[in-house]
Amino acid sequence: MAEADSGRRSRITLIAVDQSEWSEQAFEWFMENIYLEGDQVILLSVVEQLHLPFLADAVVIEEWKNEVHKMEEELKALERKYIDRCSDLRTPIRFRVEQGKPGEKICEIALKEKATLIVLGSRGSGLIRRTVLGSVSNYVIHHTKIPVILCPKDYL
């Protein structure tokens, strides 16, 4: 690990972000309570790939292209929002976008980046929704050996 100017080891934190208020609140909580100058912060947004239907006609293809363009614009806006916020805080960050299943990608990228901490915001889904659809935070907590901070939606 790289040494920070203060002589302590630099920490690498991966923060999962999306367009939700929960991920923004988790980011703000981390910055106010955990971040120390010299820490490396990686913001990761994971998008599930939009698949084009197998037997798509011209109308469906055009709608698919529009959805892909919309998703790209939303990602650019998300990146700009966090870059601007980190500039205000005078905090250098790296912003990454990956395609895949969010829980799996968060674990994979945290490992590749040698993260020492993962920060997630929780939507606070109910039992039925979590059972049927699964939970990104639940997946990450049970599939990584890296410490995880989960900021519940009602905490902030």
Structure description:
Residues 13-151 form the UspA domain. The protein has 156 residues and is α/β, with parallel strands linked by helices. It has a single domain (12-151), classed as Rossmann fold, CATH 3.40.50. Helix content is 46%, strand content 19%. It has helices at residues 21-33, 58-89, 102-112, 127-133, 136-143, and strands at residues 12-16, 40-47, 93-99, 117-121, 148-151. Strand 1 (12-16), helix 1 (21-33) and strand 2 (40-47) form a beta-alpha-beta unit. Residues 128-133 have low confidence and may be disordered.
From the alpha-carbon coordinates, what is the Rg to the nearest angstrom? 17 Å
CATH class: Alpha Beta
Q: Can you tell me the residue ranges where pLDDT is under 50 for at least 5 consecutive residues?
A: 128-133
The average pLDDT is: 84
Query: How many beta-strand elements?
Result: 5
Name of the CATH architecture: 3-Layer(aba) Sandwich
Strand order in the sheet with the most strands: 3-2-1-4-5
- The general outline is globular
Category by helix and strand content: alpha/beta
Binned strand content: 15-25%
The main pleated sheet reads as: 5 strands, parallel
Label this structure with key terms.
156 residues, Rossmann fold, five-stranded parallel beta sheet, 46% helix, single chain, 5 strands, alpha/beta
What layout of secondary structure does this protein have?
Elements: E1 12-16, H1 21-33, E2 40-47, H2 58-89, E3 93-99, H3 102-112, E4 117-121, H4 127-133, H5 136-143, E5 148-151
Parallel strand pairs: 1-2, 1-4, 2-3, 4-5
Helix pairs in contact: 3-5
InterPro entries: Rossmann-like_a/b/a_fold (IPR014729), Universal_stress_UspA (IPR006015), UspA (IPR006016)
Protein name: UspA domain-containing protein
Domain UspA: 13-151
